[in-house]
Known about the structure:
4 strands; single chain; globular; alpha+beta
Amino acid sequence: MEKEIIARLHKNFEEYAHREGDVEFWYARELQQLLGYDKWSNFEGVIEKARTACETAKQKASDHFADVGKMVDLGSGSKREIQDIMLTRYACYLIAQNGDPRKDEIAFAMTYFAIQTRKQEIRFEY
């Protein structure tokens, strides 16, 4: 993968982070685009696999995948509520691990989270 692609994807991932108080999260519909999924229905399958992985790891999925609704503008000037999901960094990691590794964006995300995990391990080693 080219260095420019890696730099762009890293920057975009961090820029799409949202904060509410001390909580950092990403919206699934924004992450969908960042990870190269055109159709929400395809991305939902990846999210469901990630939820299953979360629960199998004995984590409470609702702590990492919070279903929310948000209003979007329609072309007619009106608004409509759509389903979205607030995701923790851990949920994003699980989604990357369950995504299509043939996509450059997924391959980057897998590498990104592996590196971030290793940085944390080094930081807390004694």
